[in-house]
From TrEMBL:
Keywords: Methyltransferase, Transferase. CDD domains: AdoMet_MTases (cd02440). This is RsmD family RNA methyltransferase. It comes from Oribacterium parvum ACB1. The lineage of its organism: Bacteria, Bacillati, Bacillota, Clostridia, Lachnospirales. The keyword Methyltransferase applies. GO terms for molecular function: methyltransferase activity; nucleic acid binding. The keyword Cell division does not apply. It comes from the Bacteria. GO terms for biological process: rRNA methylation. InterPro entries: DNA_methylase_N6_adenine_CS, RNA_MeTrfase_RsmD, SAM-dependent_MTases_sf.
Length: 190
């Protein structure tokens, strides 16, 4: 796996060993970032369930300002740190070891505003839905934030529309999909 484009183009990234992490294939990552190409420049990016950190690193390489990486697996955290060192993005990054709840709590005490949130949790455990519910009223995201969830083909996010999100689009591949969501703020919340 490698960085596809930008300042760190062609740098190979390490991936954590084991079956718990599914690195996003280069072809799928390229498609994803072609969709997001006009939404990256100068943004803060949150990479939840980050694995190797490849999505956040790709965003940094393509012009994102800063990235926060979160993963509960110690091996993944070490891998992210090594990849940040290799790509020279350590100064633009914050790595939060632990689960998404801890990361969200920690971010409440930090100065970030995310234009883009990536989530690539283990499939079939509704972790993305739970994370979306936890994120929806936080001050570091708003109606301009794009949430990108990598999910199994059978996973359905239509219930998120009742929780204050709108589905912008779904991009389906052979074995998985990306779901793009945005928050809908009510007038009385502004």
């Amino acid at each position: 796996m490698r960085v596809i484009a930008g300042t760190a183009r062609r740098i190979n990234l390490k991936t954590p060993d084991g079956l718990d992490t599914r690195p996003t294939q280069d072809r799928i990552k390229e498609t994803l970032f072609n969709i997001l190409q006009f939404d990256l420049e100068g943004q803060d990016v949150l990479d939840l369930f980050a694995g190797s950190g490849a999505l956040g690193i790709e965003a940094l390489s393509r012009g994102a300002k800063r990235a926060v990486f979160c993963d509960a697996a110690r091996q993944a955290v070490l891998c992210i740190e090594e990849n940040l060192e290799k790509t020279h993005f350590k100064e633009q990054a914050l790595v939060l070891p632990g689960d998404y709840n801890g990361a969200i709590n920690s971010l409440l005490r930090k100065d970030y505003h995310f234009g883009l949130v990536f989530m690539d949790p283990p499939y079939g455990r509704e972790l993305a839905e739970k994370a979306l519910l936890r994120l929806k009223d936080k001050p570091f995201v708003d109606e301009n934030t794009i949430f990108v969830v990598e999910a199994g083909l059978e996973e359905d996010f239509s219930a998120m529309e009742e929780e204050g999100y709108t589905i912008l689009r779904e991009k389906t591949y052979k074995s998985n999909k990306h779901v793009f969501l945005r928050l809908i703020r009510q007038e009385n919340e502004k």
